[in-house]
């Protein structure tokens, strides 16, 4: 949508309107950059003094911040959540494809629902099933017997291997690979023998996957991604990983094989998580976490050393290298003190 009356926007957002409802809103911007015709939002009351300086036509805020506002306003309980919904209403992002391009290669056995769009040079292999309103971007590859649920959109150059299941209303960004072989090999006296990966990938509904992320197919059983999961760019999800519903995974995360992550977890960027173990529901791992053991209690977990000036870090590293010797000396002192007592 390119523009909307403020009163209509308030109605769609279930917000309380203060000011002229006939103002036309054509976009969203930050408090610092918003101008006439745009709407902004105040999510943190610490910045309420900035309301006097904004040039936006309207602002989304809470009842507690309304008295500082000199423009039209939409009063809500959660401005940041409302911003997300407002952005959806005013979203001008184009669809990955329109109609079915003449250059798309579609096997005659593929089953396409109504209103499917397929971009230029996309390849749809045998026995693929695409639900209603599915959008396949230019250059995508959809392998044999893959099923993609209604309303799901793939941006350009996504590769989906054979026999993959993707649910409804998912969004997959460019360059993502789903169903590639897991890293499975046996060693024969120094030579690696490939183990064919016979499982698949099953992705639930309302899942969003960032650009250039890889989700490997299972070795025997399937790799499973639950409903409502969001995965950022450039993540590696190995074979037979299970991710529970509504878990969020930030950019650059690496998950080893046969890892099970619970529901409502949040995995910080650049974290590395060992395989063949389980993380329970409602766990937060902060950025660059290294998870080597199972987590059985909900909570926030961190690891690693925060950035320090190089000179300080060198001293810290030297102390770490001497921990074993320091521990032995401390134990010796404890034994001596114990004898003296």
Q: What does this molecule look like?
A:
- The chain has 341 residues and is of the alpha/beta class.
- 14% of the residues lie in helices and 28% in strands.
- It has 4 helices and 38 strands.
- Strands 8-11-14-17-20-25-28-31-34-37 form a 10-stranded parallel beta sheet, with no helix packed on it. It has a 10-stranded parallel beta sheet with strand order 10-13-16-19-24-27-30-33-36-38, with no helix packed on it. A 9-stranded parallel beta sheet has the order 9-12-15-18-23-26-29-32-35, with no helix packed on it.
- Strand 21 and strand 22 form a beta hairpin.
- The mean pLDDT is 96.
Q: What's a quick, concise take on this entry?
A:
This protein has 341 residues and is an alpha/beta fold.
Task: Indicate the topology.
Blueprint: E1 4-5, H1 6-13, E2 16-18, E3 24-25, E4 27-28, E5 38-41, E6 58-61, E7 72-75, H2 79-89, E8 105-106, E9 111-112, E10 117-118, E11 123-124, E12 129-130, E13 135-136, E14 141-142, E15 147-148, E16 153-154, E17 159-160, E18 165-166, E19 171-172, E20 177-180, E21 185-188, E22 191-194, E23 201-203, E24 208-209, E25 214-216, E26 223-225, E27 230-231, E28 236-237, E29 242-243, E30 248-249, E31 254-255, E32 260-261, E33 266-267, E34 272-273, E35 278-279, E36 283-285, E37 290-291, E38 299-301, H3 310-321, H4 323-340
Parallel strand pairs: 4-5, 5-6, 6-7, 8-11, 9-12, 10-13, 11-14, 12-15, 13-16, 14-17, 15-18, 16-19, 17-20, 18-23, 19-24, 20-25, 23-26, 24-27, 25-28, 26-29, 27-30, 28-31, 29-32, 30-33, 31-34, 32-35, 33-36, 34-37, 36-38
Antiparallel strand pairs: 1-3, 2-7, 21-22
């Amino acid at each position: 949508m390119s523009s909307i009356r403020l009163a209509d926007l308030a109605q769609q957002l279930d917000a309380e309107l203060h000011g002229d409802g006939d103002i036309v809103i054509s976009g969203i911007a930050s408090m610092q950059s918003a101008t006439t015709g745009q709407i902004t939002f105040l999510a943190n009351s610490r910045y309420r003094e900035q309301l006097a300086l904004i040039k936006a036509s309207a602002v989304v805020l809470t009842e507690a911040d309304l008295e500082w506002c000199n423009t039209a306003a939409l009063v809500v309980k959660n401005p940041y959540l409302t911003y997300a919904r407002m952005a959806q209403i005013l979203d001008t992002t184009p669809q990955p494809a329109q109609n079915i391009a003449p250059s798309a290669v579609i096997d005659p056995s593929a089953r396409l629902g109504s209103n499917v769009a397929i971009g230029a040079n996309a390849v749809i292999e045998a026995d693929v099933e695409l639900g209603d309103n599915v959008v396949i971007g230019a250059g995508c590859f959809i392998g044999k017997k893959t099923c993609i649920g209604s309303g799901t959109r793939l941006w350009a150059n996504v590769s989906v291997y054979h026999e993959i299941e993707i649910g409804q209303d998912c969004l997959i960004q460019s360059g993502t690979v789903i169903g590639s072989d897991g890293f499975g090999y046996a060693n024969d006296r120094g030579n690696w023998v490939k183990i064919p990966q016979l499982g698949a990938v099953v992705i639930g509904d309302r899942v969003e996957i960032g650009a250039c992320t890889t989700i490997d197919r299972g070795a025997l059983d399937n790799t499973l991604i639950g409903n409502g999961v969001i995965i950022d760019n450039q993540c590696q999800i190995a074979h037979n990983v299970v991710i529970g519903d509504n878990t969020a995974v930030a950019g650059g995360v690496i998950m080893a094989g046969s890892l099970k992550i619970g529901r409502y977890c949040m995995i910080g960027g650049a974290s590395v998580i060992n395989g063949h173990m389980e993380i329970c529901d409602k766990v937060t791992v902060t950025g660059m976490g290294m998870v080597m053991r199972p987590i059985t209690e909900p909570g926030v977990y961190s690891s690693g050393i925060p950035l320090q000036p190089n000179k300080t870090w060198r001293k810290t590293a030297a102390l770490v290298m001497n921990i074993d010797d320091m521990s032995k000396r401390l134990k010796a002192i404890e034994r001596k003190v114990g004898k003296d007592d």
